Amino acid sequence: MALASALLSKVGHSPTLATILMVEDALAKSGETVSLADLKRKLPRKVMHSTLLQVLDYLQASGKVFIGTKGLTWVFAPRPEIEALKRRGLKL
């Protein structure tokens, strides 16, 4: 969690979980590389630019999104075996 504390020390506030999930969902559903402007248009509600950049920094650091010169690409792939364990209710 050193990353989270480092991000919080730079910023006085952080995005809400609802905002992070909304951005994740929009990127995952896009299925292609999108520009920052396109992502803003795909979001169901407006997000401040600085907040969106914080969310994207977090998603990149957690390995869910790749930020390249041509835009943003969703790269996270859930592991089916973990999802199957969740459905069966295995407690770890």
Architecture blueprint of SSEs:
Layout: H1 2-10, H2 17-30, H3 36-42, H4 49-61, E1 65-68, E2 71-74, H5 80-88
Antiparallel strand pairs: 1-2
Helix pairs in contact: 2-4
CATH fold topology:
Arc Repressor Mutant, subunit A
Which architecture per CATH? Orthogonal Bundle
Give the H and E element order.
HHHHEEH
Q: Major sheet: size, sense and barrel closure?
A: 2 strands, antiparallel
Any idea how many domains? 1
Low-confidence stretches: none
- Percent of residues in helices: 55-70%
Mean pLDDT: 85
Note the gap between the termini. 21 Å
Tertiary shape? globular
Describe the structure.
The structure is a single chain. The chain has 92 residues and is mainly alpha-helical. The protein has a single domain, classed as Arc Repressor Mutant, subunit A, CATH 1.10.10. 57% of the residues lie in helices and 9% in strands. It is built from 5 helices and 2 strands; from the N terminus they run ααααββα. The chain has helices at 2-10, 17-30, 36-42, 49-61, 80-88, and strands spanning 65-68, 71-74. The chain has a two-stranded antiparallel sheet with strand order 1-2. Helix 2 (17-30) packs across helix 4. The radius of gyration is 15 Å and the shape is globular. The two termini are 21 Å apart.
